[in-house]
Design brief:
DUF4442; Thiol Ester Dehydrase, Chain A; single chain; alpha+beta; six-stranded antiparallel beta sheet; 145 residues; HotDog_dom_sf
Length: 145
């Protein structure tokens, strides 16, 4: 099962919004939100909440790709998030997530008995390539037990 399939199966909101997981690797995750009338705002573009969910889902996909081998000993949890809406988003939008710290550094902190935190940067773009939103989600790996 791919990471996208796993997220769609375990995160009902990703299914609800019909998110499409286009790429999931430890280096980058790309997730698309199709243009859907049911999730439009008052000006006919994707609702801010749908775009937030898109960005958070992209961040979760890269976290699972980068740290999936740590799931037996730690649970990834979002700690906080910030989003900036830059330009009007119309039509389908795509979020691209990248890790803000090397995965090896995060795992080294976990190995040292710490609860590491790390940022994931997300850009949300519309079909013409314009950046419509920028988001940062800070994640932690909470050790089990």
């Amino acid at each position: 099962m791919s990471i996208g399939d796993m997220l769609a199966a375990t995160v009902p909101m990703a299914r609800t919004l019909n998110l499409e997981f286009l790429e999931t690797s430890p280096d980058r995750a790309v997730v698309s939100l199709p243009d859907q009338d049911a999730y439009h705002n008052h000006v006919g573009g994707p609702h801010a909440g749908a775009m937030f969910t898109l960005g958070e889902s992209a961040s979760g996909a890269i976290v699972l790709a980068a740290f999936g081998d740590q799931l037996a000993r730690a649970v990834p949890l979002a700690v906080r998030a910030e989003i900036a809406y830059k330009k009007l988003a119309m039509g389908a939008v795509t979020a691209t997530a990248t890790l803000g710290r090397p995965a090896a550094d995060v795992v080294a902190e976990l190995d040292a008995g710490q609860r590491p935190e790390f940022p994931v940067a997300i850009e949300i773009r519309r079909a013409d390539g314009a950046v419509t939103g920028e988001m940062t989600v800070v994640w932690t790996l909470r050790p089990n037990g």
